[in-house]
Amino acid sequence: MSTAVATGVWSLDPRTSSARFRVRDKLVTTTRGTVPLVGGGAVVDDAGTVTGAFVELDLAGIDTGLARRDAHLRSPGLLGTDEHPVARVETTAVEPTPDGWQARARLRACGGSAPLNLAVRVAEHGAGQVVVHVTGDLDRSPLGMRVPSFVIGRTVHLEVDLTLRLHP
User: Fold this and answer.
1) Phi and psi of 159, rounded to 5°?
2) Ordered per-residue pLDDT tens for the chain, 168 residues
3) If we measure between CA atoms, which residue out of 36, 35, 44 comes closest to residue 11?
4) How many angstroms separate the CA atoms of 133 and 123, rounded?
5) Whole-angstrom Cα Rg for the chain
6) What is the DSSP string of 55-91?
7) pTM
8) Quick check: 91 and 107 in contact, CB under 8 A?
9) The pLDDT of residue 1
10) How far apart are CA 47 and CA 40, in angstroms?
């Protein structure tokens, strides 16, 4: 499939986009969850190069299927959603690959920041719309979350499906 995307400014459609994560503890448990997307976009120049992209996630809406765990994740020692309700991922460099792009990005959350390498693949595209599948692994340690890695693993696997619409 071609990865060519039209020149212009693209905006996220949060209603048809989704963000999922999974994280293992040091023992045997894998926790899976979702985080609502609330904003985002990308800019593609005349040469077809992605010159910038970002997404915003509503951390207060984190859902692992267990309300008690979700409340704990939102607490001040972890995500601290009272003070930092939104996480933002912004690209710092984007390189084309045979099936999409490799993006270096920075995640800002919990009052901290962490580097993130993302693989971006075009899942489908048509007139004025593109769906991209994004994957990456986040080392959460630079975010300053105060929890031992045997409770919540250090590496969080991310999978995001973004529907972007071209501005007229």
Assistant:
1) -140, 125
2) 456 788 999 999 999 999 999 998 767 789 999 999 999 999 999 988 899 999 999 999 999 999 999 999 999 888 999 999 999 999 999 998 888 899 999 999 988 999 999 999 999 888 899 999 999 999 988 887 776 555 677 889 999 999 999 987
3) 44
4) 6
5) 16
6) EEEEGGG-B-S-HHHHHHHTSTTTT-TTT--EEEEEE
7) 0.90
8) no
9) 42
10) 22
Residue indicated by tokens 């926790």: 31
Instruction: Output the six-digit token pair for 164.
Output: 């972007």
**Distance (Å, rounded) from C-alpha 113 to C-alpha 78?**
14
DSSP string for the chain: ------SEEEEE-GGG-EEEEEEE-SSS-EEEEE--EEEEEEEE-TTS-EEEEEEEEEGGG-B-S-HHHHHHHTSTTTT-TTT--EEEEEEEEEEEETTEEEEEEEEEETTEEEEEEEEEEEEEEETTEEEEEEEEEEE-GGGT--S-TTTS-SEEEEEEEEEEEE--
